[in-house]
Design brief:
Layout: E1 2-8, E2 14-20, E3 28-32, H1 35-50, H2 54-62, H3 65-75, H4 84-98, H5 108-119, H6 131-150, H7 178-189, H8 196-206, H9 210-214, E4 221-222, E5 227-230, E6 239-242, H10 245-255, H11 279-289, H12 298-309, H13 314-321, H14 337-352
Antiparallel strand pairs: 1-2, 2-3, 4-5, 5-6
Helix pairs in contact: 3-4, 4-6, 7-8, 7-11, 8-10, 8-12
Amino acid sequence: MATITKRLNAEGKPYYTAQIRLKGYPAQTATFPRVTDAKNWVIVTEAAIKEGRHFKTAEAKKHSFADLVDRYIKDVLPGKPKQASQQRQQLEWWKEKMGVYLLSDVTPALIVQYRDELANGVTCRGTPRNPATVVRYMAALSHAFTIAVKEWQWLEDSPSSKVTKPTESRGRVRFLEDDDREKLLQACKESPNPLLYPCVVLALSTGMRQMELMKLAWSNVNLKGGYIILHETKNGDRRRVPLSGLGLSLLQKHAKVRRLDTTLLFPSDRNPQKPIDLRKAFASALRVAEITDFKWHDLRHCTASYLAMNGASLAEIAEILGHKTLSMVKRYAHLSDGHVSSVIESMNTKIFGGTQ
């Protein structure tokens, strides 16, 4: 039921207050200078309430984008401890740009404006911001909007869903040829830091990420069974890492001289409760080996590349490296061409027989 009441202001001019009362819904009131405006508002608002649209729109007009970011940081990020710091920084960037806007005024066009500003900007190191970084900023924004839509009902739909993300590069594939690998291993073996060589060998032989390796505790290692169990990984899943060959042999030797004041395999000399920092030692070994454009993470690329060149399937590489999908390991597909060719040859021989 709707009512429209005529009143006079202090100057004696009329204005009209419209009120809508529908069972099961809070009363809605609005004031207009003309009675026709009041009647139109009643018609539109009643229809929107009955169709379930009105209150979603009303919520979007009550909350600013800054409100959304603040609530997301307070209520959602604590449940994502591994991404919390990075996503907080990303959302604070969006808040600085769009915080003053009501959610009802945050449009795809507005997000595109700041997406382009982000893409054309530079990092804190003064280097151009790459598409992958922009994609991660937009992913943080998108999830915040999704929560606001699905759980808080502050929005009817997400404006970010209509915005195109930049295309990421195909991914870096930097691995060492046999000669360079041997030179690097020799330089690591001769390093003043005795832990550099076993750590680099383990990184190459297992494909573990740097922090997975550096945070290893003896309780994670089963030398008799020849495997490591990683309880904390980037994607959140436990992962079993097989040990064999030189990597296993070096760990067995290392276990004989393990320190008793820490649970870590590779502790810092200054603070045994923290992992060792091998950045300087690794950089020095690279210089000695005369290897350029190579980072510690590229050891992981080496592992994947060697696996591909030795016949491992993309699914096997993904499992070993701890990727949930094949998309991250497709960059190594060209290195397994020989293996794929042999599979095709075997299939053709089986169904068609030998050459005629």
